[in-house]
Amino acid sequence: MKNTTSIFRKPLETAFSGALAYLESLDRAPAATTADLRTLRERLDRPLTPQGMPPEQVITELMQDVEGGILGSPGGRFFAWVVGGALPAALAADWMSSAWDQNAALYACAPAAAVVEEIVGFWMKGLLGLPSAASFALTTGSQMAHATCLAAARHALLQRRNWDVERKGLFGAPPIRILAGGHQHGSVVRAVRLLGLGLDHVISVESDIASRLLPEALQKALEQSPDAPTIILLQAGDINTGGFDRFEQIVPLAKKHGAWVHVDGAIGLWAAASPRYRHQTLGIEGCDSWVTDGHKWLNTPYDCGFAFVVEPEAHRASMSHRAAYLTHDDDARDPMDWNPEWSRRARGFAAYAALRQLGREGIAALVERCGLHARELVAGIGALPGAEIMWKPIINLGMVRFLDPRPGATEEDHHRRTDQVIAAIAADGEAFFAGTTWRGRRCMRISVSNWMTDEDDVARTIATVKRVLAANQE
Ligand SMILES: *Cc1c(COP(=O)(O)O)cnc(C)c1O
Questions:
Q1: Which sequence spans correspond to the domains of the chain?
Q2: Cα of 266 to ligand 1 centre, how many Å?
Q3: What is the CATH number that goes with domain 92-356?
Q4: Beta-carbon neighbour count of residue 115 at 10 Å?
Q5: Could you tell me the distance, in angstroms and rounded to a whole number, from the CA of residue 108 to the centre of ligand 1?
Q6: Ligand 1 — pocket residues by CB below 6 A?
Q7: To 10 degrees, the CA torsion angle through 312, 356, 349, 66?
Q8: pTM of the prediction?
């Protein structure tokens, strides 16, 4: 027998103490990075030796070399993009996923992982108010969840027109029209490209200031070609405004024309888990496919997205694969029947752990707390001299900008000032934000999706922005 104790213990103990030291430093450490690109390249470009090296030395040197190159995104004062941190149970389960190192393609090669995914899918449908008969997939993120859902949509819409897209492909198929609001996340658009649906077939439908599609405009667009196979792309949580489409009004219009309604809920589908925010998702259960992320608002480590599809047959027909060398199980659920992947990480463990750590009320509380802190940050920063509130949060996303105080300052000057303040906050290190361009204006986006963010973080952040504004007067 191998002496596995001595092989694993040192590198894992090194990683364990390094991880704890890192996580426990988050409250004090700068939220921005301190090492630049050149430094990181120089440090990490160590010789790849012929003989290799002891595993614990690899880990020790890795931790030294990345010093200053790790963003403080797992911490409570990181408000850029929509990232979230990792809940303790989710992080620990993620470590176990690596230790167990299961190939979660099939029940046969990862039995417990397959069952955990089954249960996570079932829990998620309940939490998010989705139809209990919907099929699901645990994907790498919303990007591949979009690809999964839209592949099912493509299959279903063309099958109804007697076209087997899996066999015949898209050459000669009835063209699928895609109706979407003015603003879609790039990952949805990329899924459209990957599936060969073609960007030229995406037709922009007028939407309002919160990026919600106007039902009258949609009705008009549908009536222009009443029988064309159609996908309608909706959003639950626009990346700038956090806006939700009016599902209740749109679903009946879509049904009348046999259109497939797909929802990008990467951020905002979680609103359905909270009594306070649930009304935003009214009617969402009538849509055909839904996407959300675990690695954002649920605070699992990365590699966790969810796809849900109302027609399990279409979903399975577009994804499943059978091969003679694989062992399929008739009773169990084989993840690869539902996923655009073959060998895959047993990502269900982390999601399972996150859901269990929080529980139903804990998930609602997380969503509501993030919403509250987003409102406090927008109000607090927006009230500082020279700041202007651009968007008050609907959920956990808001926007402010910073005005150039000089008399006669132009829009260009305000854009520059806003970017300058964002950079100065990052350089200060106490908090971290990113910019966005919204309706032609540079804004600082305020996005709160970390389970750790608390009142103290909010107060420290507002004080930081105040200090930075005072120190960077023009
Ligand atoms: C992050 C995000 C995506 C993409 O999700 P990934 O998990 O990064 O693939 C899609 N849509 C919205 C609205 C997002 O915020």
A1: 92-356
A2: 5
A3: 3.40.640.10
A4: 15
A5: 31
A6: 82, 141-143, 185, 187, 237, 239, 264, 266-267, 293, 305
A7: 130
A8: 0.97
